[in-house]
Design goal:
The chain is built from 18 helices and six strands. The protein has 419 residues and is mainly α. It has four domains: 79 residues, no CATH class; 83 residues, DNA polymerase, domain 1, CATH 1.10.150.130; 158 residues, hpI Integrase, Chain A, CATH 1.10.443; 31 residues, no CATH class. The strands form two sheets. The chain has a three-stranded antiparallel beta sheet. The longest helix is centred in the middle third of the chain and has 20 residues.
């Protein structure tokens, strides 16, 4: 069986567990950070393992198995070196990310792999590549998460997305048998919603952008985003002339973002009047003759639509729009929702009601003006309803006003006469 003894090294008390295995004397030495209680527990585990090995038993009882699983990596390594247990192959954090990304690159789009690569960089700004997977604990992951917030360089939605990606990596390690439990279990990701850069793009701004376009291709790009509500560039650049049904005034949009969901490979979108005009102009132009795609001039990978759009914005005399294509799509989503309802908005814009509520619906200044009873005027200043209109409106809401009696039993005084 095993015996426990103490020894002093450098003025510190240390514990050693001696035992015989396979006719050889072996010793497990515990450093000064381990207490006598831990030493006694380990001695009992060693005796249990020796008994199991002597009897040829391979399945441990639940208590012993749990103790070994929750022990420190150092203690498990000491047990493995003496031949009492076998440890699974050790893998580093770098190996995990390399293998995960190699597998993902075969199943997902390049853009998705790029997002994982960005999360990997943020991960290794805090951790070392050579770290063993067993060294990652919930506490260390929480420290890393806190550092992402304190850096001040990342939005909450970006941090949430990063944590989601890293959790997917460690969950993959579980499926490979590299680890038994993810260190991200119980770590909250936070919100994916970031509305700080949301901004509606008015029809006046849309018209000014259209007038500033350098060619008809760009007029169609902006119209598809602002009037059609398409994702740009992914859905805009995939659009083909064969997708346009001129007879029924609609066109089919292939969606790379939702195509992995059954039945969501694409959607039909109305050929709205403003959009149809731009389509027809481009269709009958010489540049579209015998062409497969609707947009041809900006299909090369080196083309950066955002850079050219910035020049269009400047030429239109507007301030640079944050997330311009997303915000044009969001503005159209709100218009369609208000005019045609939730069902048609989801079908035509191409997202779920939850996504619409979290990322697209937006309260604008016009909503407040409409709710307060203000009306549009020909000039740039909105004027309130007239005094006669107010007299018609107020009694409907306040019976006391209709009777000419205030809420305190006093005669009502018009607000313009109050001092």
């Amino acid at each position: 069986m095993a015996s426990l003894r103490t020894r002093t090294r450098g003025g510190s008390l240390m514990y050693e567990i001696d035992f015989y295995a396979n006719c050889q004397r072996k010793t497990i030495t515990l450093g000064k950070k381990y207490t006598q209680r831990t030493a006694n527990e380990l001695k009992g585990i060693v005796e249990t393992l020796l008994r199991y090995n002597d009897n040829g038993m391979t399945v441990l009882d639940k208590r012993t198995e749990t103790w070994i699983e929750t022990a420190t990596p150092e203690i498990r390594e000491k047990l493995a070196k003496t031949g009492l247990i076998e440890l699974p192959p050790s893998h580093t954090a770098k190996e995990l990310w390399d293998m995960f990304l190699a597998q993902k690159s075969r199943n997902v789009k390049e853009s998705t792999v790029t997002i994982y690569e960005a999360s990997r960089k943020r991960f290794f700004r805090f951790f070392r590549e050579a770290e063993d997977l067993e060294s990652f604990t919930k506490e260390r992951i929480q420290q890393w998460k806190d550092s992402l917030f304190t850096s001040g360089n990342l939005a909450e939605a970006t941090i949430a997305s990063t944590l989601k990606d890293v959790k997917a990596v460690f969950n993959w390690a579980i499926t490979q048998g590299w680890i038994e439990k993810s260190p991200l279990d119980g770590i909250g990701r936070g919100s994916f919603v970031n509305r700080k850069k949301d901004r509606s793009v008015t029809m006046e701004e849309y018209c000014r952008l259209m007038d500033a376009c350098p060619c008809q291709d760009w007029r169609v790009i902006i119209a598809l985003t602002r009037i059609g509500g398409l994702r740009c560039p992914s859905e805009v650049l995939q659009l083909r002339w064969e997708d346009v049904n001129w007879e029924y005034n609609k066109f089919y949009v292939r969606s790379s973002k939702t195509e992995h969901h059954k039945g969501k490979e694409g959607r039909w979108v109305p050929l709205f009047p403003e959009l149809k005009l731009e389509f027809e102009t481009l269709f009958f132009s010489p540049t579209s003759e015998c062409r497969e795609f609707v947009i041809n001039r900006y299909r090369e990978a080196t083309q950066n639509l955002r850079t050219t759009f910035g020049k269009i914005v400047k030429r239109a005399g507007l301030e640079m729009l944050p997330r311009p294509f997303d915000n044009m799509r969001m503005t159209r989503s709100n218009e369609v929702y208000r005019e045609w309802g939730a069902f048609k908005e989801s079908e035509w814009i191409g997202h779920s009601s939850r996504v619409r509520a979290d990322h697209y619906l937006l309260i604008t200044d016009d909503d407040f003006q409409e709710a307060s009873g203000w009306t549009n005027q020909t000039d740039t200043v909105r004027k309130p309803t007239t005094e006669s209109d107010r007299k018609k409106i107020l009694p409907a809401f306040f019976p006391a006003v209709r009777e000419g009696i205030g809420l305190q039993g006093q005669e009502c005084v018009p607000m313009t006469d109050q001092r």
